[in-house]
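Troubleshooting entry. Yesterday's outputs looked truncated, so today I'm pasting the complete records for two proteins to confirm everything comes through intact. If either block looks cut off, that's the bug. Protein one:
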Amino acid sequence: MFFVCLVYIAGCSPKKLFSCQLCGKVLCSKASLKRHIADKHAERQEEYRCIICERVYCSRNSLMTHIYTYHKSRPGELDMKDVKFF
């Protein structure tokens, strides 16, 4: 006996799903998979610090998501030259 698991992601064709080989997360595009690997699994070279609350992130994408979600600012509304890279 075997089970078939069909994952549905809104807006994605089931034939075009990409799975992370490191954690099994299923993503909708190759670009999303690449960003996921960079955000979650890559060795950290730099730190990205929020200029509003000083919280530190390991990727620019994570920082931008944080700023939009928690501070309700779009990336263009902040002066990115003030973002600190360590």
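Protein two, checking that the full record survives here as well:
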Amino acid sequence: MGPQQDRRSMANGTRKETKVVVVVVQYRECQRNHAASIGGYAVDGCREFMASGAEGTAAALLCAACGCHRSFHRREVEPDCDCSSTTSG
């Protein structure tokens, strides 16, 4: 997923305002219930997601520490910066 962009131009088309929002997503502790099949509740204690492989591969979605899929880890979204620029042209 790339940066979200909001572009506006005036009626005469000489001035454009570009707004780029960069969002940082981090995956924290694992929340997978390993004892669900027996009616209990137990988590493995994995504190943070670490990818098993390179970005863009299937292994990048598995945690190197606990072996769970990335979707079991708590997702934390932080806006990194809100950079606005105005250009004339």
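Both blocks look complete. Sanity check on protein two: Strands lie at 4-9, 15-30, 73-88.
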